[in-house]
Design a protein that fits this description.
D-Maltodextrin-Binding Protein, domain 2, 2 domains, seven-stranded mixed beta sheet, three-stranded antiparallel beta sheet
């Protein structure tokens, strides 16, 4: 029986940073026809699809084929000839040599669904989380995580829009369970990594807590974020971000509270949260659900077992959880 290959986590973290650099460069020359709508109405670009192919091909070549849950598939830009052509152009520029068959494999292999607790390993990939932000020049990030028996044991994200004044090209975050979270400069491979440590000091009585709200927040979303922040007993300042970058802002000390509610829906997609839950927890953030319980990433493509994903610094997590639990009860969410 063949033993599974050991995962070289530094290689994977650098792969995510490399993918981030490629996406930054590709964005500069992104033609309008390479930005399209998926069947569900969400925006996607040829860069999203090309990055998924590039990352999954590299992982398979290094570690063998591993079960995968990924956001994109052949339908993402299928039937859009200009977007498909731009995807293939990017892959050629990036040195991808797998051809059409390998490209199609990388877009078909991420469709795993159902419980993952009995699976030895599962990759979770969102090649660009926050594609609207990628198009608009706002926050976005490539996100990769590894599950073992349904538990997140590794995460790596590229955040080119975070801490650019301190780290060349923004930050790459990576974490192995039990070994902390580490910050790398995306554009400076020779720079030493720094340990990420979330603030633990409690806010002063009149100090505003910084709550992340969606970049294109509605009035009701703004009111809800303010109410949640005020439930901690402090005034509120809103920080705007979508994608897993909202959790990176907490890790980086640029925000104090970030969360995503399920509400009455089926549950958030696992690729939007899996890696960040480990990155934040290993950096010392409070990460949990409205009842204080853990985030269950082992149910497949959706976080159907959780009412919210909460990430908080400075001892604010329990108050946020209690506020969101009360809101669920008021709205009849069970």
């Amino acid at each position: 029986m063949n033993r599974p290959r050991a995962i070289d986590f530094p290689f994977v973290a650098e792969l995510v940073r490399d993918a981030t650099r490629k996406a930054v460069e590709a964005r500069r020359g992104l033609p309008a026809e390479a930005i399209v709508r998926k069947p569900d109405g969400s925006v996607v670009t040829a860069v999203d699809v090309a990055l998924q192919v590039y990352i999954l091909d590299a992982l398979a070549r290094r570690f063998g084929e591993i079960a995968t849950i990924a956001e994109e598939d052949a339908a993402s830009i299928g039937g859009k000839p200009a977007a498909e052509a731009h995807c293939d152009l990017l892959l050629r520029q990036w040195g991808f040599e797998g051809g059409a068959a390998r490209r199609d494999w990388a877009l078909a292999c991420g469709g795993l669904d159902g419980p993952t607790r009995d699976l030895e390993r599962v990759w979770i990939l969102d090649p660009i989380d926050g594609t609207q932000g990628f198009v608009d020049g706002d926050h976005w990030c490539p996100c990769l995580a590894l599950l073992e028996q349904g538990e997140v044991v590794f995460g790596a994200n590229g955040h080119p829009t975070v801490l650019r004044d301190r780290f060349a090209g923004g930050i790459g975050l990576s974490a192995v369970r039990g070994a902390g979270t580490w910050v790398h400069a995306i554009d400076d491979a020779a720079a030493l990594a720094a340990r990420a440590e979330v603030r633990q000091d409690a806010p002063g009585p009149d100090e505003a807590v910084r709550v992340v709200a969606p970049a294109r927040a509605t009035e009701s979303q703004i009111r809800a974020r303010r109410a949640t922040g005020e439930a901690t007993g402090h005034p509120v300042r809103l920080v705007h971000s979508d994608s897993q970058t909202k959790y990176a802002l907490v890790i980086a000390g640029e925000a104090d509270i970030a969360y995503s509610r399920r509400g009455g829906g089926p549950g958030k997609y696992v690729w939007d949260h899996a890696g960040a839950t480990l990155l934040a927890r290993e950096a010392g953030a409070w990460v949990g659900d409205t009842d204080g319980g853990a985030i269950d990433c082992a149910r497949g493509r959706r976080l159907g077992g959780n009412n919210a994903v909460i990430c908080a610094a400075r001892g604010l997590g329990p108050a946020v959880a209690a506020s969101l639990a009360a809101r669920d009860r008021a709205e009849g969410v069970v």
